[in-house]
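User: Can you write out an input/output pair for a complex, sequences first and structure second?

Assistant: Here is one pair. Inputs:
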Amino acid sequence: MRQLGFASAVSTGKGALEVGAENGLRFPGAHIAFSRYYTTIKNNTDQEVEFDFPFVIEPGELTLLGVRDGDTAHLRVGGFIDFRLLSPAGPFGGTYDESTGRLFDYFAEIDFDDSPNAANLLMVLLVKQSTERSFATAGYNGHLSLPTIPAFGELTVYYDMYAHMNVLDSEVGGKVRLGDPTDLIGGTGVGLIQRQALSDTPEPGTLVLFAAGITGILAFRRLT
Amino acid sequence: MAAPIDFTTGIITGTYVFHSNALQFKDGAEIARFPIWDFLADSRPYGAQLVQTVPVTRTSRLPRFRE
């Protein structure tokens, strides 16, 4: 595969995703690399639980080599974070209501018409010449609040990342990547941080202290 | 006895190089099984429609900036 270019995707157990593709011999065709990290959280308690999901997008690159004529190639990197929530339903349990959704997405691209587009990723122009067009993408540190998992519910988070290069013309190639999937060294990865439940009703001990404080203030004001 | 909260994690990777209908290389997971395949529906190489795709909602784009 290396003779025709390559596509590489790396993911560590910590959820450090990196993807990349290179069309070094400048053939028409497509190169796609994709990685998915997923985690399922099963709540076996009778209390709802909540988690935060910090994640990192490594810096990347989109480079297009060759003469461009306006319908030459499409380079794109990006990703998205989806969820699937199962909530117990029915009077006797055993069945679930399922809901799904998208929590976050991002991309950066050089479109067929040569224009750069991005969402939630910063693109920085590196080279703009008749035979080369190159952008860097900045790293990104994200933090998501995941949906609340009800008692005995289950939440699955899917984190997908991809690098894609579609070349239509001969003698056009390039490179597209997020992170460096060729070094086989993962980055920071993702995390799961449980949010502490905040009790709505103050505990009796707290009320006693509060009452004592008020009494003390009133007594002090009466003395003065 | 199950833990109060169970965690199950996994990773899946895959690659796909397409030069023509006769010359394709795949490694890892089948890309057509993943939402990325639909996500890239508008920019796949001609002739590479392996599965019927459903319409996708495109992400909103930032205004194109001048250089």
